[in-house]
Amino acid sequence: MPKKQDTTQAVQIAPNVYWVGMHLKDDPFQCHPYLIKNANESILIDPGSMIEFDETVRKVKSIIDIKDIKYIILHHQDPDLAAAVPEIEKLINRDDLLIVTHSRMSLLIKHYLVTSNYYEIDKHDNQLITSSGLQLDFYTTPYCHSPGAFVSYEPNNKLLFSGDIFGGIEESWEFYADESYFDKAKQFHQEYMPSKDIFNYALGKIEKLDINLIAPQHGSIIEKQYIKNLINNMKNLDCGLYIDEKYNLELMNTIKELQDKEKTIKERDLQLLEQSKRVEIGEMIGNIAHQWRQPLAIINSTVGILKEKNSIGLLNKEEIADKLEKMEQRIAYMSDTIEDFMNYYKPNKGSSYFEVQTAIQKAIDILNVSSNEKIKINLFVDSDIKIYGLMNEFVQALVSILSNINDIVNSKNLSDTNITISLLTDENYTTLTIADNCGGIKKENLSKIFDPYFTTKHQAMGTGLGLHIAKMIIEDHMHGSLSARNSNDGAEFIIKLKHGN
Predict the structure, then answer these.
(1) Which fold, 347-501?
(2) Among 75, 186, 204, 484, which residue's CB has the most CB atoms within a 10 Å radius?
């Protein structure tokens, strides 16, 4: 493309795209309006101030009837770009004329006494498509150099109308840029772009586009062969606040301070990780101790009974076999408890579907509840209902709930206690309810019974971890819910599991 152009006339820079500006002699601050010819929906871009008004109108009229302009794009609100709009509106004289800009700038542009309606790009998906199919894509470049600044990309010609970005201040102005253009653009950007960070954010959007030509509002038009190097040079340009040495020093000190803090935080995180591991080990030991307390007490009681009967010669083989089998069940449960808690924080622990009835019976056997003459177990459970999870963990949760009821029966010396276990399933949930007639939970304790270490028992009777562990198993591991409420004559524990968990 020839470098010298007759700027006394409109200059075509791409198919149906024209420069319609004015060469201001000895003025380093050249301002450039552009026209996209598009039948009666033509587009005028950044028409300029009243200084260029007559020349711009003359050149537009040399290409189209000025009344064919339907859109005026304003990339920002400064007078060197927008001041001539009211006079141009009068010449166009169209009721459907639209000012294409960002909503942050329409509030300011109206002060030029603009009368046309606005096409605010941020309310139209940052795009304009005319009825003929001409498309413009808009990319916001906030604070480069105004809050609502943007650039316009015409994908058919791969042409970017860049507003103030890539503008240059040139004592000897050339229509087309050459390889030395960065030196001419550097001063403009240092003075008009607010900071290196903000400018680089805008450049990051622009460099992703496939661009053949850049048409800025100031400076020279930039051809494809110069675009990549120009963008790379611009990225390293200290501009705005960065050209202030004090700001640069303060910024570097801030970065150093942030790096030091990041290092301190990482060291603290490592310490907290080690502490959390120690806490987890402590909690695991406490949890195992809690789960072992009941079966150990039963085993110890069974051993005592066997020793007593043996001393007076009342033991028989059948009783020994029965007692040993029950002790083996409890020892197996204790062994499973260790295994479960060792794997407690590990993912993918081998969950599967299991029968709820089997888990309930296992919990009842572990606690030996059915042998307690004071307690009657009422089961309303369908043997076919299955849920997904680790059965041993689910048994632990049931043991904690039943153990809590058993302790209340013993501490209150209750008789004729009924524990009703019912299981219901519908399209969405499986619900297990464990209800008793032990008088219920005190109102002030109802909201705290699942809290860790909360207990109304003597310290020798429990740690207050049982119901907390049960809630963790049901809610954290099985993604269900465990709640408690009072009924007419006792308490109800409700386990709710969504199908598919």
Answers:
(1) Heat Shock Protein 90 (3.30.565)
(2) 75
